[in-house]
Amino acid sequence: MSKKIILILFVLIIFKPVFTLAQVCCGGGVYDVAVLSLNKKALFNFGYKFDNFMGVWDSEKEWRENNNTVYQMIPSLSSAYRFNKQIQAGVLIPFNINKIESPGLPSNGSGIGDIVINGRYEFFHEYGLYKEKGKLKRDESTPYLAATLGFTFPTGKSDETADSEVDITGKGYFTSNLGISAIKTIFRDKLQLGADLSWQHSFEKTYEKYYGEELSQTYTRQQGDRFNYALTVNYLVNYWHALSFSFGGFLMNNYKLDDSEQDNTNENAINFVLSYTYYPSEVIRISPLIKWNIFSSGIGKNAPGSYLLGLNVVYYIENLTLDNF
Amino acid sequence: MKYILYILSGLLLFSCKGEDIIAPENPESEYTKVLTVDSSNYKFELYSAFGSSLLVGYNELGIKVFENNVEKTDGFVRYVPSMFHTGGQAHKTPYKEFFYYNTQKKMYTGYACYIMLSDTTSFWISDYSYNDIFTVKRKFFDVYPNPGSQMRFWLDLNTNFLYLLTLIQPADPKTGLNTYKCILHKSFENSGYSEVDSARMFIRPWMPSHGHGSSSNVNPVWINNGIYEGKTNFTMAGNWYVYDSISVNNQFITPNPPIYFVFDVR
């Protein structure tokens, strides 16, 4: 049972580090869709994030601190469903609340963000059962391995139609996300290591307006392809408590304007996530977390830096189908 | 008669300006003396609102005039700077044609936009004249670099006018709304510069490293003497371009893509 709890904890945490906004503070597109372990059929999650933007790394990797208050709160609802032993899918609906304090400018805005749909195909599960010479045995060596696929839909309001920056709740373009997720238990029921890699592709967006004003000449913009990575250590304290620490980041290529790649616009940043999980019952999980960047020069490029406080409250529906085990 | 009109228009401009600006207690102290030139009984003191040196770009200037050590407070002053190169070439630079006496600042006020640095082969000289009654001619001065200064030249092929847009503000841009102020001049065959007062400007801030612009910008409108003022919104720290498309008589005079100033926003 404990390994499944760890599995749940892991997959919920590993997606957190890849959440770094690419534009200003107020984009959408989060990939932290909830994931199910084998013994769970479905879940419903209420999530909340408070992301406080402290500054930005410029194109020379110099850290520049904000001189005003910029933050984003994202309450969200998500759900996941397991179809069988290999396949599951989830959906996340965020609601973005933006705050930018700047004299003479609107300071508050909110709206539905970009909706994310995510699925995964699980090739292997740890400690699976198999038969050898007629005897039922437990596989002690194979790690958990899954392929992940996600899509972000531009349901939020982008800079094309928003009235101002605080009204931006989405990126305005489709993105796809393809990745792999691996877990290996080091000490059973105590310590796990995980790795998560993904490739994010953004589709081209054509601008006919900008902040609601018609453009005399339309143009296209395409975000560069992005590689996300995360390494995680999970420690199960006991049946009710677990801790997780994650190191992650991303590398993103130059963006394109009208199919022309723009020099020195590639982005990167690293971050850390510390999470605690409390299991008051078999079907409820409560996880506060903190994510932070290192706010100094040379650590990132063309990317905002922030610290994020989050909370997830998850309700599970148990999977009682024995075929899955 | 012409000079009376100039004086009247100058007085009108400054009286309008005074209506919506709260004058500091001692506006004279905003200016720092840069140099003194004299000849026989006459003396001109040149002041700058930007410090003790004359800098490349827009300079807000003040001049005090003395005859037999008695300060003059009427009429106008002409300040005519020119640059000479050792090769024999000379050229003008934009400047205010008439400096009128400002009672708050207690000096004759105007501006000059120095388009080049002084160096070993290029020399700035200027003539100073009070009411065209007496003149001190060909006095040397130096112009120093100014990191916050920006000037953009371009030739409008439709009219053959050489245009010059000089940034006045912001010199030290911050995140958020910044006052965007510039002065537009034109020149025909380098014969001298005149202020352009009938232009329309359309600005578009753009952050090249992130590929986005900003909302809530205010296009500059004419204020006076070739000066246009608007607002530009820098939503985050980093390098920003502010593109400025300019039309005169409904014809765009700027090239495509338009000219732009570069700002290092902190």
What kind of assembly state do the chains in view correspond to?
A: heterodimer
Percent of sequence in beta strands of chain B: over 45%
CATH superfamily of chain A: Autotransporter beta-domain
- Name the helix and strand elements of chain A from N-terminus to C-terminus, one letter apiece: HEEEEEEEEEEEEEEEEEEE
Mind explaining what this structure looks like?
The complex is a heterodimer of chains A (325) and B (266). Chain A is mostly beta strands and 325 residues long. Chain A is built from one helix and 19 strands. Chain A has one domain: Autotransporter beta-domain (Lipocalin), CATH 2.40.128.130. In chain A, the strands form three sheets. Chain A has a twelve-stranded antiparallel beta barrel with strand order 1-2-3-5-8-9-10-13-14-17-18-19. Chain A is globular. Chain B folds into two domains: 2-144, Immunoglobulin-like (Sandwich); 151-265, Immunoglobulins (Immunoglobulin-like, Sandwich). In chain B, the strands form four sheets. In chain B, strands 1, 2, 4, 5, 6, 7, 8, 9, 10 and 11 form a ten-stranded antiparallel beta sheet that branches. In chain B, a hairpin with a 6-residue loop joins β14 and β15. The termini of chain B are far apart. Chains A and B meet through β2 of A and loops of B.
